[in-house]
């Protein structure tokens, strides 16, 4: 049998389906924008709920899930920490998206026409300054992309939406003003989840995410975390939330710099397991460069306050 020609091989490769990355929300959501920014060669897949996004990966309909975990203004995304331990997936990457809100209206509308503005409650709260300046009445909707879609569908010049530039492009809206968020640092951190774990290259900085429960005894958390301090492990996140419908059992989500097989991290996790139970590693993945840039800016700002 003769070998296929180079042209035939190229054409065959060109027809292969792109890998899929799932996100929560309608097309035009910020999660959609993050998918395009982080994985431009993958096909985004819209799903209604976070559970559906994770199920798409488990069922093989998507290679990755793009999940928002927290925002520099609004804090952590509700329900995510409850879903992670039971998802059956692994965190394999992180990505930071600078959130640039736009005031979107139907073509031909002007600032003077506007009376109300619709969007997700977080987007509205992140743009309070402009809403007060223009005297607009905020209306809470389920999400930013849905608000953009509905404003476009109604065609009412008195109603605007707060959303992404991507949603304006998808739904045929005009941006009357860009970058309307109150805080310049408005950034959302996303985690990328997959069915199989990854092992970051030895030459890159890594982050380890895990969950654990402390025993219901005095100073249990203090004792459990002591190993990270004595072994010089930097813990960058620690959040608690109630489990099992009680007010006495708390589960903790934590992130540390390093890998579980690094000696300091290994010793710290060993001590953690002595004082806790149900320690579960959710993922070991490369640290995004944004982490180091944010740390540099924070140190510079701190130095400016020194006498």
UniProtKB/TrEMBL annotation:
Pathway: Amino-acid biosynthesis; L-phenylalanine biosynthesis; phenylpyruvate from prephenate: step 1/1. GO terms for molecular function: prephenate dehydratase activity. GO terms for cellular component: cytoplasm. Transmembrane segments: none annotated. The keyword Lyase applies. Keywords: Amino-acid biosynthesis, Aromatic amino acid biosynthesis, Lyase, Phenylalanine biosynthesis. It comes from the Bacteria. Residues 20-195 form the Prephenate dehydratase domain. Gene3D superfamilies: 3.30.70.260, Periplasmic binding protein-like II. One of its GO terms (biological process) is L-phenylalanine biosynthetic process. The record marks 188 as: Essential for prephenate dehydratase activity. This is prephenate dehydratase. It comes from Rhodospira trueperi.
């Amino acid at each position: 049998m003769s070998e296929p020609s180079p042209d035939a091989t190229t054409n065959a490769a060109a027809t292969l389906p792109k890998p899929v990355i799932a996100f929560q929300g309608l097309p035009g959501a910020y999660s959609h924008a993050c998918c395009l920014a982080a994985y431009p060669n993958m096909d985004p897949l819209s799903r209604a709920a976070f559970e559906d996004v994770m199920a798409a990966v488990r069922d093989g309909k998507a290679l990755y899930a793009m999940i928002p975990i927290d925002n520099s203004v609004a804090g952590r995304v509700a329900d995510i920490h409850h879903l992670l331990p039971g998802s059956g997936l692994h965190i394999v990457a992180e990505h930071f998206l600078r959130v640039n809100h736009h005031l979107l209206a139907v073509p031909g509308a002007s600032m003077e026409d506007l009376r109300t503005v619709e969007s997700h409650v977080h987007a509205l709260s992140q743009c309070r300054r402009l809403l007060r300046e223009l005297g607009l009445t905020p209306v809470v909707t389920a999400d930013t992309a849905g608000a953009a879609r509905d404003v476009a569908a109604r065609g009412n010049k008195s109603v605007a939406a707060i959303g992404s530039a991507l949603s304006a492009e998808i739904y045929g809206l005009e941006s009357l003003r860009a970058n309307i968020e109150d805080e310049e640092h408005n950034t959302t951190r996303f985690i990328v989840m997959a069915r199989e774990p990854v092992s970051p290259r030895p030459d890159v900085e890594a982050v380890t995410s895990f969950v654990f429960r402390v025993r219901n005894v005095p100073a249990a958390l203090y004792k459990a975390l002591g190993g990270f301090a004595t072994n010089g492990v930097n813990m960058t996140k620690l959040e608690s939330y109630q489990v099992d419908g009680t007010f006495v059992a708390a589960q903790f989500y934590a992130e540390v710099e390093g890998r579980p097989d690094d000696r300091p991290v290994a010793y710290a996790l060993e001590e953690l397991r002595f004082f806790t139970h149900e320690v579960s590693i959710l993922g070991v993945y490369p640290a995004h460069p944004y982490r180091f840039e944010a740390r540099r800016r924070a140190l510079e700002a701190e130095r400016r306050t020194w006498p």
